[in-house]
Design goal:
Length: about 500
Amino acid sequence: MEMVSFWMILLAIYGTLLVLKAILKYANWWLYESQLGIKQYSLPPGDLGWPFIGNMWSFLRAFKSSDPDSFISSFVSRFGRTGVYKAFMFGSPSVIVTTPETCRKVLTDDDKFKPGWPQATIELIGKKSFIGISYEEHKRLRRLTSSSINGMEALSLYLPYIEETVKSSLEKWTKMGQIEFLTELRKLTFKIIMHVFLSSESKLVMEALEREYTTLNHGVRAMGINLPGFAYHRALKARKNLVATLQSVINERRNQRKENLSREAKDMLDALMDVEDENGRKLSDEEIIDVLLMYLNAGHESSGHITMWTAVFLAKHPEYLQKAKAEQEEIIKKRPPTQNGLTLKEVRQMDYLSKVIDETLRLITFSLVVFREAKSDVNINGYTIPKGWKVLVWFRTVHLDPEIYPNPKEFNPSRWNNTIPKAGEFLPFGAGSRLCPGNDLAKMEISVFLHHFLLNYQFEQLNPNCSVRYLPHTRPMDNCLARVTKCSSSSST
């Protein structure tokens, strides 16, 4: 009798667990899909996962493994190669798009899609930054700020400083022995971006700000858990410190103006403080700070990482390195003897180096995803994206699609010979009206570094088989431990 009771209790527990599992499995369906009525039957295939967590555990598990692409592969293997999948990501019911056509549609149709970044990310980057404002405000703010960073005049103005800073940094690294190449590159790109935006040369201030930016960036792709010990909590504290510092810089700049203290050159902060729209409206301090935070965060992180990976890939492929170096030597050879330093025209003549950089941008995909939100019900590929659902534009899958790029995980700059990618096939800076506003500055910065690096220096990665982490960005676990040495026969530039 006792044995029967034992088995009945065991059976009851098992039955309860099955019911509980079913409830948990269908909780998100009940909360988000059942409310849609008949529209639920035209949703893309997919899986909303567990309550609250959704698909985040499988996303994080994949991106903390050696195979981050297993996350999307699991959708493809279960639901077919539809290119559109429903999921529950970053706290919201979402649709993931993974083909050039669907990505282009979402990125370029401003009537149907608006920015859909998680609220946690907006809190970090800023409610008045490009990711947090309406289409109309974005258009206004971009128009007012873009010439300060991407215009011909601005790029020509920044070029001498970038070149001088690159040359002095490379020379310094040769005397340091073993270095974390990525860490040093991030310091270099941060110094450049600080000069462009704030004209700040204070080493202590820059190092403090750079540390805060690193903490902020680690929280951008983390789960938005504001509790001690979590990356997001640390990132919020970092933002608070950054805002306070930038506000003090703005206050000091205003005081200088009141006292008519002239400054040698204008930087982007000056431009942001001076700019007016057609109605005479100036930017508020909150707008200025959020724009600076956005540009500063994106401006040094992407440039530093892509520069590092380009150097790593070239070191592993001597044939491509020699070709890129020969192009730089030809530029020096054609230069008038009276000319000192690079010109913007010369940078734009670096055709092969541009292909090398594009191939690195494709293979690494610095920003693996961007977020949009459906303004109304939208039909894509015969599926319905409901109003209010997030849309995750998954760049990484497009860039590593073997049908678009044969042997996609192979570094091969030659794939860009006589090739112009179709719309949506190459998205390192996004697309549409919200294309990354600092893309020209970033590419120029990378090109200038590689010009001097290829001509005059050698690079040895000390742990070439070091494992890689993929969040928040793809990087070696050791931050690319390396030695930089001067070439025995370096070119004069």
